[in-house]
Amino acid sequence: MIRAVATDIDGTFLTNQRDYDRQRFAQVYSAMNSRDIRFIVASGDQYYFLRSLFPNMADQLAFVAENGALTIDRGEELHCGRLNMNDVQAVIAYLDRILGVNFIVCGRRSAYVRASDPVYFQEGVRQFYTRVKTVQDFDEIGDDVIFKFALAVPPARQEKIAWGINTSFAGIIRATASGYGAIDLIIPGMDKSHGLRLLLDRWGISPADLVAFGDGENDLEMFALAGTSYAMNNAPVNVQAAASHVIGTNNDQAVLAKLEQLIE
Q1: Considering the entire predicted model, what is its pTM?
Q2: What sign for the dihedral angle of Cα 152, 10, 214, 68?
Q3: Which of 8, 45, 73, 191 is catalytic?
Q4: What CATH number is associated with residue 105?
Q5: Average pLDDT of the chain?
Q6: How many domains does the chain have?
Q7: What is the pLDDT of residue 78?
Q8: For this structure, is 8 an active site residue?
Q9: Which of 163, 186, 209 is the last residue before a domain boundary?
């Protein structure tokens, strides 16, 4: 029995043009509502950006944003992670010593980049973050709650960089691949499955009745939780192996196609 659906966004629900068939989804969502099936957006993206993808129904949806650091159900915040500011400063100092790495400091109110970051990086950030502030130095962040770092790294060094971070900051942050040349640093235990458990417990739904869609290593915990999981055909081999099933690609709108089959 399907009672809830959780989907990743980039590389899963959205096409490479970063959009989806909105009319088709509206029909799917209406059918889900009539069957009392919950729809959850579970992504490493910023909450404000995720809301912007669903302008007419955002207040009706649940969001597990920032790879699990922020969980919101129909506009109500259920959980917001917080990193100790001394740890935030230590991570920033560590990342500044790695050549070829650019990064975003992710907070509850905004994401932050430095004015000294390359222009191409700053422009790219705004494709994924609706609220971004450019600062001269990260000391200007003030009292915002910081819960994640998002890194752009040389793909050939991605595994080595993640290993170094996990070794240096064990128990403080955990590096998880969020895409090709992309690493998210998240609070240990606050992955997508953490937010999903909060929502399922709130609704009285068993994980066995959860269906999950994803394409990245940051979806693995979500796959392990869900009763049924679908990996995209464009996902890495290890992600496909962890899923119950493999479907088409994000450009095929395979999530919508599978949902139409599941709820017909």
Answers
A1: 0.93
A2: positive
A3: 8
A4: 3.30.1240.10
A5: 96
A6: 2
A7: 98
A8: yes
A9: 186
